[in-house]
Write a structure and sequence with these properties.
With about 200 residues, the protein is mostly helical. The protein folds into 2 domains: about 160 residues, no CATH class; about 35 residues, no CATH class. It has 9 helices and no strands. The longest helix has 28 residues. The two termini are about 35 Å apart. The protein binds zinc ion.
Length: about 200
Protein backbone atom coordinates (compact mmCIF):
# COMPACT_ATOMS: atom_id res chain seq x y z
CA UNK A 1 0.00 0.00 0.00
CA UNK A 2 2.67 2.50 1.06
CA UNK A 3 4.92 1.45 -1.81
CA UNK A 4 2.11 2.08 -4.29
CA UNK A 5 1.46 5.47 -2.71
CA UNK A 6 5.15 6.30 -2.92
CA UNK A 7 5.39 5.49 -6.61
CA UNK A 8 2.16 7.30 -7.34
CA UNK A 9 3.70 10.35 -5.67
CA UNK A 10 7.00 9.86 -7.47
CA UNK A 11 5.16 9.75 -10.82
CA UNK A 12 3.50 13.03 -9.93
CA UNK A 13 6.96 14.26 -8.94
CA UNK A 14 8.34 13.66 -12.42
CA UNK A 15 5.35 15.63 -13.72
CA UNK A 16 6.25 18.44 -11.28
CA UNK A 17 9.76 18.44 -12.74
CA UNK A 18 8.33 18.91 -16.21
CA UNK A 19 6.15 21.82 -15.09
CA UNK A 20 8.96 23.44 -13.10
CA UNK A 21 11.42 23.22 -15.99
CA UNK A 22 9.01 24.31 -18.75
CA UNK A 23 6.99 26.94 -16.90
CA UNK A 24 7.25 30.45 -18.19
CA UNK A 25 5.51 33.35 -16.46
CA UNK A 26 3.63 34.45 -19.58
CA UNK A 27 1.47 31.37 -19.81
CA UNK A 28 -0.87 29.65 -17.40
CA UNK A 29 0.89 27.24 -15.04
CA UNK A 30 -0.94 24.19 -16.39
CA UNK A 31 -1.29 25.36 -20.00
CA UNK A 32 -0.76 22.97 -22.89
CA UNK A 33 2.54 24.61 -23.68
CA UNK A 34 3.85 23.72 -20.24
CA UNK A 35 2.18 20.36 -19.71
CA UNK A 36 1.78 19.01 -23.24
CA UNK A 37 4.29 17.14 -25.38
CA UNK A 38 6.31 14.03 -24.63
CA UNK A 39 9.30 14.04 -22.33
CA UNK A 40 12.67 14.25 -24.01
CA UNK A 41 16.32 14.48 -23.10
CA UNK A 42 17.20 18.16 -22.56
CA UNK A 43 20.52 17.66 -24.38
CA UNK A 44 19.98 15.42 -27.43
CA UNK A 45 16.19 16.06 -27.44
CA UNK A 46 15.40 12.42 -28.10
CA UNK A 47 11.95 11.36 -26.89
CA UNK A 48 12.12 9.06 -23.90
CA UNK A 49 10.78 5.52 -24.09
CA UNK A 50 8.35 4.23 -21.46
CA UNK A 51 11.03 2.37 -19.50
CA UNK A 52 13.04 5.56 -19.18
CA UNK A 53 10.07 7.27 -17.54
CA UNK A 54 9.69 5.07 -14.47
CA UNK A 55 10.12 7.47 -11.57
CA UNK A 56 13.22 7.06 -9.38
CA UNK A 57 14.01 3.59 -10.84
CA UNK A 58 14.96 4.79 -14.35
CA UNK A 59 17.20 7.50 -12.96
CA UNK A 60 19.03 5.06 -10.70
CA UNK A 61 19.43 2.34 -13.36
CA UNK A 62 20.79 4.83 -15.89
CA UNK A 63 22.93 6.38 -13.12
CA UNK A 64 21.49 9.79 -13.91
CA UNK A 65 22.57 9.77 -17.55
CA UNK A 66 20.75 9.91 -20.87
CA UNK A 67 20.79 6.48 -22.57
CA UNK A 68 21.60 7.97 -25.97
CA UNK A 69 23.99 10.88 -25.49
CA UNK A 70 25.30 9.91 -22.07
CA UNK A 71 24.87 13.45 -20.81
CA UNK A 72 24.45 13.71 -17.03
CA UNK A 73 20.94 14.69 -15.93
CA UNK A 74 20.20 17.11 -13.12
CA UNK A 75 19.93 15.49 -9.70
CA UNK A 76 16.79 17.63 -9.32
CA UNK A 77 14.81 14.99 -11.24
CA UNK A 78 15.60 12.32 -8.68
CA UNK A 79 15.30 14.56 -5.63
CA UNK A 80 11.87 15.89 -6.60
CA UNK A 81 10.55 12.43 -7.42
CA UNK A 82 11.70 11.05 -4.08
CA UNK A 83 10.37 14.07 -2.18
CA UNK A 84 6.95 13.88 -3.82
CA UNK A 85 6.80 10.15 -3.15
CA UNK A 86 7.71 10.85 0.47
CA UNK A 87 4.94 13.46 0.76
CA UNK A 88 2.40 10.86 -0.37
CA UNK A 89 3.55 8.48 2.37
CA UNK A 90 4.41 10.80 5.26
CA UNK A 91 1.26 12.96 5.22
CA UNK A 92 -1.26 10.10 5.63
CA UNK A 93 1.05 8.38 8.14
CA UNK A 94 1.33 11.57 10.16
CA UNK A 95 -2.42 12.16 10.17
CA UNK A 96 -3.09 8.55 11.09
CA UNK A 97 -0.56 8.54 13.92
CA UNK A 98 -1.46 11.87 15.47
CA UNK A 99 -5.19 12.01 14.93
CA UNK A 100 -6.20 8.38 15.08
CA UNK A 101 -8.95 8.93 17.65
CA UNK A 102 -10.31 11.82 15.70
CA UNK A 103 -10.76 9.81 12.55
CA UNK A 104 -12.05 6.69 14.21
CA UNK A 105 -14.63 8.82 16.04
CA UNK A 106 -15.63 10.95 13.11
CA UNK A 107 -15.25 9.66 9.62
CA UNK A 108 -12.80 7.98 7.26
CA UNK A 109 -14.07 10.28 4.51
CA UNK A 110 -12.80 13.24 6.48
CA UNK A 111 -9.44 11.51 6.77
CA UNK A 112 -9.30 11.06 3.01
CA UNK A 113 -10.20 14.70 2.41
CA UNK A 114 -7.66 16.00 4.91
CA UNK A 115 -4.92 13.68 3.64
CA UNK A 116 -5.55 14.64 0.01
CA UNK A 117 -5.68 18.30 0.94
CA UNK A 118 -2.40 18.29 2.86
CA UNK A 119 -0.69 16.26 0.16
CA UNK A 120 -1.86 18.83 -2.39
CA UNK A 121 -0.59 21.66 -0.21
CA UNK A 122 2.88 20.16 0.22
CA UNK A 123 3.09 19.28 -3.48
CA UNK A 124 2.10 22.85 -4.35
CA UNK A 125 4.77 24.20 -1.99
CA UNK A 126 7.37 21.95 -3.61
CA UNK A 127 6.42 23.17 -7.08
CA UNK A 128 6.48 26.72 -5.77
CA UNK A 129 10.02 26.21 -4.47
CA UNK A 130 11.20 24.73 -7.79
CA UNK A 131 9.84 27.61 -9.85
CA UNK A 132 11.17 30.08 -7.30
CA UNK A 133 14.66 28.57 -7.49
CA UNK A 134 14.70 28.71 -11.30
CA UNK A 135 12.96 32.02 -12.02
CA UNK A 136 12.96 33.82 -8.64
CA UNK A 137 9.21 34.27 -8.83
CA UNK A 138 6.14 32.62 -7.41
CA UNK A 139 3.31 31.83 -9.85
CA UNK A 140 -0.01 33.45 -8.87
CA UNK A 141 -1.78 30.19 -9.65
CA UNK A 142 -0.01 28.48 -6.75
CA UNK A 143 -0.78 31.32 -4.34
CA UNK A 144 -4.46 31.22 -5.26
CA UNK A 145 -4.48 27.45 -4.88
CA UNK A 146 -2.88 27.60 -1.42
CA UNK A 147 -5.39 30.23 -0.32
CA UNK A 148 -8.29 28.07 -1.51
CA UNK A 149 -6.79 25.01 0.17
CA UNK A 150 -6.56 26.95 3.43
CA UNK A 151 -10.27 27.76 3.23
CA UNK A 152 -11.19 24.17 2.45
CA UNK A 153 -9.07 22.96 5.37
CA UNK A 154 -11.01 25.36 7.55
CA UNK A 155 -14.38 23.91 6.59
CA UNK A 156 -13.39 20.26 6.16
CA UNK A 157 -12.17 20.08 9.75
CA UNK A 158 -14.00 18.02 12.38
CA UNK A 159 -16.81 19.94 14.12
CA UNK A 160 -15.01 20.21 17.49
CA UNK A 161 -12.55 22.67 16.05
CA UNK A 162 -12.59 26.36 16.59
CA UNK A 163 -11.94 28.62 13.63
CA UNK A 164 -8.31 29.11 14.49
CA UNK A 165 -7.58 25.41 14.54
CA UNK A 166 -9.01 24.43 11.23
CA UNK A 167 -6.14 25.19 8.91
CA UNK A 168 -2.62 26.32 8.47
CA UNK A 169 -3.95 29.86 8.74
CA UNK A 170 -3.78 29.30 12.47
CA UNK A 171 -0.09 30.04 12.75
CA UNK A 172 -0.75 33.58 11.49
CA UNK A 173 -3.48 33.97 14.07
CA UNK A 174 -1.17 32.86 16.86
CA UNK A 175 1.52 35.27 15.87
CA UNK A 176 -0.91 38.15 15.85
CA UNK A 177 -2.17 37.33 19.34
CA UNK A 178 0.83 36.17 21.40
CA UNK A 179 -1.00 36.42 24.71
CA UNK A 180 -3.18 33.42 23.94
CA UNK A 181 -1.73 30.71 26.12
CA UNK A 182 -3.56 27.98 24.22
CA UNK A 183 -1.62 28.92 21.15
CA UNK A 184 1.63 28.37 22.93
CA UNK A 185 0.62 25.05 24.42
CA UNK A 186 -0.56 23.68 21.11
CA UNK A 187 2.65 24.66 19.44
CA UNK A 188 4.75 22.92 22.04
CA UNK A 189 2.77 19.78 21.30
CA UNK A 190 3.95 19.99 17.76
CA UNK A 191 0.54 21.04 16.47
CA UNK A 192 0.36 21.30 12.69
CA UNK A 193 -2.66 23.53 12.66
CA UNK A 194 -4.93 20.58 12.95
CA UNK A 195 -4.68 19.45 16.53
CA UNK A 196 -7.46 18.43 18.86
CA UNK A 197 -9.13 21.16 20.89
CA UNK A 198 -6.72 22.63 23.40
ZN1 LIG B 1 20.33 12.74 -24.43
Amino acid sequence: MWVILFFFGAALGSFLNVIAVRYDPDSFLLSRRVVGGRSHCPFCRRHLRWFELIPVVSFLIQRGRCRTCGHGLSIQYLVVEVLTGAIFVVVPLYLRTHFFLLFSTFSPALFAIQAALWIAVFVALLLLALVDIRLMLIPDEINVFLGAAGLIALFAAPPIHSVTQGSFLRSYWERSSPRRSSARSSRSRGGNGWGLAT
